[in-house]
Amino acid sequence: MSHNPRRQFLTQSAALAATPLLASFAGKAFADDPARKLGVALVGLGSLATNQIAPALQKTRNCRLAAIVTGTPSKAETWKKQYGIPDKNIYDYKTMNRMADNKDIDIVYVVTPNALHLEYALAAAAAGKHVFCEKPMEISVERCQQMIDGVKKAGRMLGVGYRCQFDPNHLECVRLAKEKVLGELKVIDANFGFAMGDPTQWRLKRDLAGGGCLMDVGIYCLQTARMLTGEEPVWFSATETKTDPVKFKEVEETILWQAKFPSGVVVSSVSTYNANGLAGFRAATQRGWFGLEPAYFYGGNRGKRSDGPDINFPVADQFATELEDFADCILNKRQSKVSGEMGLADVKYLMTIYDSVKKGRPVTL
Ligand code: NDP
């Protein structure tokens, strides 16, 4: 076995490279040299970028924090010192198109409010960069499609920040469902919420967030249902409640939704901005159950199954893992499992849930 961890990693990655990727990547990407770490530019230096993504990038094997895009000059100064980012790799939202001539940057990771993802993703693609975009991908199906089209036209790769897809505890639950270890999957109960603090933040503004708790945290439960069933939902029924119409003037406070899947699996889910203590799922099967509680945290997710052993795999940094995978996809011309199409489908289902709330009746797809 090779003692060079870098080479060992590349060998393992190559063996995993199952799906051929767009031939147009060949010879075009700055990532021609597979021994080079791919440079990541973070767009929007808010809470997630500061507390999770930037630290995670320090742990990755095949990418590195190379550049920043920010509208706040004081943040640029802090980040420059903290991460040793050269002046030429610091942009604002108007100058980021100049990235086209910056070979330090391979991937642009968009971490802004939801309704700004499209604009910056398109700017990045037009500059010839691969795009990784936070969830929810955008605030409408049309805008998700525009992002997919723009990145495709540029011959670049698009991925969406579904970190749970890289959590071994989630993957173990997918295995239990897929292999019918406890019999066939029948019912899923998945819930996620938190008590929203600052009433002035963008998450409560429709034009920036696109919606409330459903867009922000309900999407995790939808992902769980799609991951566990391996199917696409065919029916939704939903209703909302609002106890603070001032704070939640523009977006929903709590949504309860149900879904049916083709195999007959039914799903029930609550997402809320008005309560803590909801962050897990339970799947009922013919012969028992399994689930995670918590399921949706950055770390420490763990669970149980009815036949005994705990589900408690060590969780590596989810953001480091998802970024390593995206970089690996680029280096090995492999399709990302957290594709733009997956992001678009989720937004389509979220819109169907809103449609059901609006119509006051179930909606069939
Ligand atoms: P924050 O409000 O903490 O940060 C957003 C940043 O975007 C701001 O700090 C600002 O950075 C930039 N920005 C640009 N334009 C605007 C604007 N008009 N209003 C407000 N901010 C603006 O948000 P989060 O970091 O919590 O969320 C960012 C994205 O990440 C969202 O899409 C969210 O859904 C997603 N997210 C994903 C999580 C996950 O687990 N995968 C967890 C949390 C969030 P600057 O000052 O540098 O310009």
Describe this protein's structure.
This protein is 34% helix and 20% strand. The protein is built from ten helices and 14 strands. The chain has an eight-stranded mixed beta sheet with strand order 13-12-11-7-10-9-8-14, with helices on one face. Strand 11 and strand 12 form a beta hairpin. The longest helix is centred in the last third of the chain and has 20 residues.
Q: Classify the beta-strand content into a percent band.
A: 15-25%
> Major sheet: order of its strands?
13-12-11-7-10-9-8-14
**Class by helix and strand content?**
alpha/beta
Distance between the termini: 52 Å
Number of helices: 10
The low-confidence runs, each spanning 5 or more residues with pLDDT under 50, are: 1-31
Number of strands: 14
Topology as a string of helices (H) and strands (E)? HEHEHEEHEHEHEHHEEEEEEHHE
Shape: globular
> What's the story with the biggest beta sheet?
8 strands, mixed
Arithmetic mean pLDDT = 92
- Secondary structure: helix percent: 25-40%
Give the structure's gist in a few sentences:
This protein is of the alpha/beta class and 365 residues long. It has helices at residues 5-16, 47-57, 73-83, 117-126, 141-153, 168-178, 206-209, 213-229, 318-331, 340-359, and strands spanning 38-43, 63-69, 90-91, 107-110, 130-133, 158-160, 185-193, 235-241, 254-260, 266-272, 278-285, 288-292, 303-305, 363-364.
